[in-house]
Amino acid sequence: MAEDVPRRRPTLDEVAELAGVSRSVASRALNDAPHVSRAKREAVRQAVRRLGYVPNPTARALATRQTGAAALVVSGEDPSIFADPFFAQVLVGALAALEEADLHLTLCLAASDRGRKRVEELFRSRGADGVMLMALRENDPLTRMAEEATMPVVFGGRPVGAVPRWFVDVDNVGGAREATEHLIARGRTRVATICGRLDTEVGRARYRGYRDAMLAAGLEPLPPQEGDFTERSGAAAMAALLAGHPGLDGVFAANDNMGAGALRTLRAAGRAVPADVAVVGFDDLAVAEVADPPLTTVHQPIQAVGREMARMLVALVNGEDPTPLILPTRLVVRSSA
Amino acid sequence: MAEDVPRRRPTLDEVAELAGVSRSVASRALNDAPHVSRAKREAVRQAVRRLGYVPNPTARALATRQTGAAALVVSGEDPSIFADPFFAQVLVGALAALEEADLHLTLCLAASDRGRKRVEELFRSRGADGVMLMALRENDPLTRMAEEATMPVVFGGRPVGAVPRWFVDVDNVGGAREATEHLIARGRTRVATICGRLDTEVGRARYRGYRDAMLAAGLEPLPPQEGDFTERSGAAAMAALLAGHPGLDGVFAANDNMGAGALRTLRAAGRAVPADVAVVGFDDLAVAEVADPPLTTVHQPIQAVGREMARMLVALVNGEDPTPLILPTRLVVRSSA
DNA sequence: GCTCCCACTGGAAGCGCTTCCAGTAGCACT
DNA sequence: AGTGCTACTGGAAGCGCTTCCAGTGGGAGC
For residue B4, what pLDDT is reported? Predict the structure, then answer.
């Protein structure tokens, strides 16, 4: 239907002229705003189609002071944090929700100094209508930036040592407690944990859940055996646990990767799973299903985290005041425990 | 150093006034452009710092007609395509390269109709300075959009049935050939392949490489046994192959996920790897290293793909004319072959 | 037939920046 | 002193859109 092929992209002025209306009317017609007669609305529609007009988002952004974009900022030293399937899922959820609100997604990695500087600029220049923040570390400089920000900020997970105004998290304590209770219910009494990095809130929370469950059952919790959420670190931690507590009969790993690593070490050590040692993971990623034996684990609604973060941000951008969200987890029993 | 705390963000006008210069001079000073005396340059610097001035990127974008953003568009029905660690790595590489060029990254998923419409709008409205396109299918509507686009477009991998003007790909044919040759060199003569989706160029290319190597060795290539790049599909394909060709002694899987699935099926079928059946994968993802036995595979520089795509795009945005890139692969020998 | 009201209209003023261009000043040379 | 530079300078015109506001006309009500 686009008939003319102008070298320059048509502007609203040209649409207005072709439609025989003023630019104001054309603008209003375009945005389904009131105060435009039926006839002119139609004329504008025609002109738009004839010229193949598409509004210039930059100009619109300048006039409305809304960029039409939300930023997802991922902190952390290691850029390969993205490789974590966890993030991929959050991303998918967030993208879906932003699509509904017709916002774009700007992805930022605050790993290098340069990266952090760019994020700071994003905050200070209002280069996005709002920001979703993930994977903050203890004393993360992003925390300060978020505090000083003049636009809405939603946290994914809680940062260490602070409860932000708006966040979406999963019930890490509850999930870890349920996992540990499951081990105890299966008759295990010498249950250890491979916990995640204790400089993250998720690492701490899952250890807390383990500890709570042990104490509640009158058992003695072991001190944290720390891993960094990778398969390799899980294997190493398991080896350390076996060395220090040869008699253990249950392990709660703070995520599936480490759980899989633990399985590997146990297999190599000749311990049968679950007969000798029962293992429970956390996350319910693909690796849990494929592990040998398939890993009993705590399912968390990862896409929902992304989706709810985005929805919360959209609500904030629209001037609402949503409440923080803690999503429930659910134990998925497979063969390892 | 920011002394005044204005409710409104300061504008360039205010900076200029405080520095005692005109807005033009202030603008030039800010952008390190010529025709500004040393003294005024310094005065502007001072004013910027005193006011805590940060330029408004939207206004700049409108004036320069450059958005300062590159888009990464991922096609495909299934949003969980992101969960593929492959994409995560590409993303990391692209982000790093864009950071160098001081461009932002807008991530778009063209999975739903709505998503595709938004991408089309992005193209037509020039909502980005350039676009990186990935995971196109046969007759993908994105191909047409890319052709009609008025901004630079770089392809990641090649679409089926067309060679785009600018793309970054890995040497899929060569890698697959090398993998198959490795099996043949190990004395395997009844080598099958679990190929990827044949409606993607990567699926076809890897099958072609397998076929070439077989023919070159005077062996008869088997018809493609298709999977969809998932572990599950690899396991199923392996089962089908065992049923149809019980005597096979080698398998080239078109990616590591399917290779791992094949290992699972072989283990279940009581075939020893590599003694009875040797297996080679493709990608060299984490799963290959962790597989049992560790998977011999074709390494491809995934981050480099993202990095080079972004660099190529930056070059195009800067008016250069880069040449397409095909990155080399490399066989990584582990225990499975 | 006259007033009043209201839906609609379009001119104009922005949004905050870049950049063209017509100057202006200062300086070294004739 | 006059010329021709070079190096800066700042006014002004955009970039393409939204939105305020002062009309304008036509219909309803009396």
Answer: 42
